[in-house]
Sequence to fold (156 residues):
Amino acid sequence: MESKGNLMRLAGAGAAIAFGSTLLVGGATSAQAAPVNYQVINGNSSNSCLQVNISGGKGNLVLGKCDRSAKQVWQIAGGIFRNPASGHCLDGNGADVYTFPCNGGAYQKWTTTSGSAKSIRHTQSGKYLDANGTVGAQVVFQPTIGTASRWVIDPV
Fold:
């Protein structure tokens, strides 16, 4: 009788191991895809790109001549625009737009419209990213969408 009980325990243990192995193999995920880099071009000028200038903890946002430099490269995922060279994300408090070390907070969340010329809307304030298209111009918030609030987001 004891050997029958041992046999049942062994069969149960074998089934548990097989089930656990299936979970381990079936639960494996593929590696994440590498982030895609983008340049963000102002709709007022095909040669003015969103550029971060870091000084201290905060970064100013200006339009720079599009050159695909590290200051103009953005990774966009989950509503967050991240500049990988600086580790800063597009940020704003409703009055000013700037970059700040990425923290995933509400001030770093953005939405974009569909189409080739997109508006970039700050989720927290409801305002739009805007610039006048001139190289060196400060990037600002505007409450409504205008020509300068349109952006082309191109892979680099």
Summary: Residues 3-29 have pLDDT under 50 and may be disordered. Helices lie at 2-26. The domain at 37-155 is CATH 2.80.10.50 (Trefoil (Acidic Fibroblast Growth Factor, subunit A)). The chain has two domains: 1-30, 37-155.
